[in-house]
């Protein structure tokens, strides 16, 4: 009997051994969570979930932020390609500071639409990341890009487990847990936090991340400076003022949901928490009970 050519032996060994290797790899990976957060622009996911992302990353979990648009009109002095490049670089620096990954889609700011193609893109990103948890805007926001980000993620939630939807990516092994990020809008119904997370341990990382996005929170003609009131004109004073606004934002979340923090962390620690981020369980996707959900989030 003739021996098999060497290349055929290699192919057979690959076919026989690869499944076992993949199972081992999956078993190792399954010990850690995989989280993906969608924001409308390069800064939204960082503002909404930068703290919890840093906490997850510190525990060895894999976190990715996705900006659905490139932010190329979010400034009052520059726009187009130069601004898109600048804002991408800023969130890349944020990702380094937080210990996560980031991606900015090449869709113009203000032009995101809830199309089938964009739904496929969102589903593909969730599937490629094999996400256990998906964070995103509620579809009830002032900005159409925020609303449509929420709509697209909701629409993708039902198909990420379907083998033949975007079949060039593997379906998720189970439906992820989908959670909305915090907002202040009251209609059609207000945000109702399912879980509130203390970010005190990593809060400086979040402040450093915000400071690394001067196109939004530092420039004289940045969006926040140009749309705000009583903004200082000095560079250092303006940057400090804009950063403090976000410190107060996360402090207000902790104060607003103090009772929930006490429920989750206990009376003593719950009363001491200064800064927090909040998330609401979406009715789409997996529906873990509260004890399971607490185990998925760091610190609670």
Which tags fit this structure?
seven-stranded mixed beta sheet; Rossmann fold; 300 residues; 7 strands; 12 helices
Account of the protein in words:
With 300 residues, this protein is an alpha/beta fold. It has one domain: Rossmann fold (3-Layer(aba) Sandwich), CATH 3.40.50.10320. It contains 12 helices and 7 strands. It has a 7-stranded mixed beta sheet, sandwiched between helices. Helix 3 links the parallel strand 2 and strand 3. Helix 3 packs antiparallel against helix 6. The protein is globular, with a radius of gyration of 21 Å.
At the fold tier of CATH, the topology name is Rossmann fold
Q: Tell me the CATH superfamily.
A: LmbE-like
General form:
globular
Cα-based radius of gyration, to the nearest Å: 21 Å
What percentage of the residues does DSSP assign to strands (E)? Answer: 5-15%
Summed up, the helix count is 12
Q: Mean of the pLDDT scores?
A: 90
Number of strands: 7
How widely separated are the two ends? 65 Å
Major beta sheet, strand line-up: 3-2-1-4-5-7-6
| Derived structural class | alpha/beta
The stretches of 5 or more residues where confidence is low (pLDDT under 50) are 1-29
CATH architecture: 3-Layer(aba) Sandwich
Specify the CATH class.
Alpha Beta
Largest sheet: 7 strands, mixed
Total number of domains: 1
Q: What is the succession of H and E elements?
A: HEHEHEHEHEEHHHHHHEH
Helix percent reads 40-55%
